[in-house]
Recover the amino acids of this structure.
């Protein structure tokens, strides 16, 4: 490859002016980038049973004892840090376009427990329209049949929201552990135990298909029921009905690769797949 260099003879005064102008431009650019960065977002804290909660909940000492109270005041880009404890709480948020992160400090000790709630009517534990990241939490309900949904997300009428769920446990017989409508994003490295349906509803959006990867499904009735997903590297053990199923008519851009599926005697591994199945074992 030939590189051509253009040599220009510049008078000292002109060179100085040029450097000064470049510095001003560089300063303006850096200032714009700093203002645009999410580093100005706020971390807000939740601590079960905290006796001294105080708005705006920005330290452990002043942490809220209610997840909902913190969700209600968050701005886009904020992070909610949830301390160890049991939270028998329902959370609802309808802020299309707001970006939130919800983190537990320890997956086994940060428990959203609705096992004491009535079995019916329908109960959506976390109901969000926001763009959302959830990590390091455990959702828990009873082992008997319930009408509980652990995480329910849905995007705008003519668009979608982005939801990423990582390292989350779902324990108990949730009607659906995760229900997704008009949602893109990912579900990874999570554990589903005893759900009637573990993941339901990733449907067509104008974004990439939902990535469902490296999760463990154990003794669930239905693993994944989806219209629009990439399902890679998951483990299904003792499924009661089927591991994966897609809609006959509306499924598109769906692939099932490198999964391990083990059901009971007459159970179906993959049902109604419209695209590709590769390197799965059962």
């Amino acid at each position: 490859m030939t590189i051509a260099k253009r040599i220009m003879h510049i008078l000292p005064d002109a060179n100085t002016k040029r450097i000064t102008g470049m510095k001003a431009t560089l300063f303006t650019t850096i200032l714009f980038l700093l203002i645009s960065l999410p580093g100005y977002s706020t971390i807000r804290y939740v601590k079960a049973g905290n006796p001294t909660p105080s708005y705006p909940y920005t330290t452990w000492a002043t942490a809220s004892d209610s997840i909902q109270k913190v969700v209600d005041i968050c701005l886009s880009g904020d992070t909610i840090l949830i301390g160890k404890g049991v939270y028998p709480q329902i959370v609802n948020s309808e802020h299309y376009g707001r970006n939130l992160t919800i983190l537990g400090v320890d997956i086994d000790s940060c428990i959203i427990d609705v096992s004491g709630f009535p079995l019916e009517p329908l109960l959506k534990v976390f109901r969000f329209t926001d763009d959302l990241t959830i990590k390091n939490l455990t959702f828990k309900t009873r082992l008997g049949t319930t009408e509980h949904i652990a995480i329910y997300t849905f995007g705008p009428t003519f668009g979608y929201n982005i939801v990423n769920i990582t390292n989350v446990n779902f324990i108990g017989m949730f009607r659906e552990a995760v229900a997704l409508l008009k949602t893109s994003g990912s579900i990874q490295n999570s554990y589903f135990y005893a759900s009637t349906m573990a993941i339901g509803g990733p449907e067509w959006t104008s974004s990439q298909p939902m990535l469902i990867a490296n999760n463990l499904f154990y003794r669930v009735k239905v693993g994944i029921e989806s219209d629009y997903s990439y399902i890679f590297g998951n483990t299904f053990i003792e499924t009661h009905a089927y591991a994966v199923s897609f809609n006959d008519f509306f499924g598109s851009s769906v692939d099932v690769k490198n999964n391990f599926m083990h059901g009971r005697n007459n159970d179906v591994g993959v049902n109604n797949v419209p695209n590709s199945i590769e390197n799965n074992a059962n």
In short: Residues 12-36 form the longest helix (25 residues). The chain has two domains: 11-40, 42-278. The radius of gyration is 24 Å.
